[in-house]
Amino acid sequence: MAITITTKTTPKDVQYIHEKSLTIPEITPRPLKKLHQLSTKNLISTARENQKIIGWVIAEPLTKNSYELGLGFVEKSHRGQHLLYKMLKKLITNPQATYMYATYDSKIIQTMHDIFNFQQTTLTQIALSSHGKFITKRLKNPSATKTVAAHIAQNKPLYSIRKPLQ
């Protein structure tokens, strides 16, 4: 079956992503209202097979021209097909924007460098580049704080950034 990648999402899609993300301990769920806002701006990229959502990733605005990539997920049965990177290509479209993310997987860091020209960096640099929003948005969300604390207890977070292209 053909897999399609799109940034066009419906309210029903957003509801599904929200509900499913609440059941996945590896990702930090976002509030439903936030997901609806991102959807209206085409900042949620989905992978679908026969109209069924099998993966998604978001680009959350932090400042006027910076975004955090996150909430990335692909169904286990579809992993290894580079779907996450195909979805990211739909979101990383502004050469003048700064994009950043956190992960616990060093393979993702290397692939993001190879495909999208990201550079591994520090939390301090991410905080500076986002004017503190990368950190403060986590402090405002109790479920995010809990999820991040659980991740950090088991893994060392890695940070990566792609600054505006020259």
What average pLDDT do the residues reach? 90
What's the level 1 CATH class?
Alpha Beta
What form results from the Cα inertia axes?
globular
Q: What order do the SSEs take from the amino end to the carboxyl end, as H and E? A: EHHEEEHEHEHHHE
State which percent range the strand residues make up. 25-35%
Distance between the termini: 39 Å
Number of strands: 7
Radius of gyration: 15 Å
Main sheet record: 7 strands, mixed
Structurally, the number of domains stands at 1
**In the CATH hierarchy, what is the architecture at level 2?**
3-Layer(aba) Sandwich
Give the strand order of the largest sheet, numbering strands 1, 2, ... along the chain. 1-2-3-4-5-7-6
Count of discrete alpha- or pi-helical segments spanning 4 or more residues: 7
Give the uncertain stretches in residue-range form: none
Which secondary-structure class do the elements indicate? alpha+beta
Residues in helices, as a percent range: 40-55%
The named CATH superfamily:
Gcn5-related N-acetyltransferase (GNAT)
Kindly report the CATH topology.
Aminopeptidase
Structure overview:
- This protein is of the alpha+beta class and 166 residues long.
- It has a single domain (3-162), classed as Aminopeptidase.
- The protein is built from seven helices and seven strands; from the N terminus they run βααβββαβαβαααβ.
- A seven-stranded mixed beta sheet has the order 1-2-3-4-5-7-6, with helices on both faces.
- The termini are far apart.
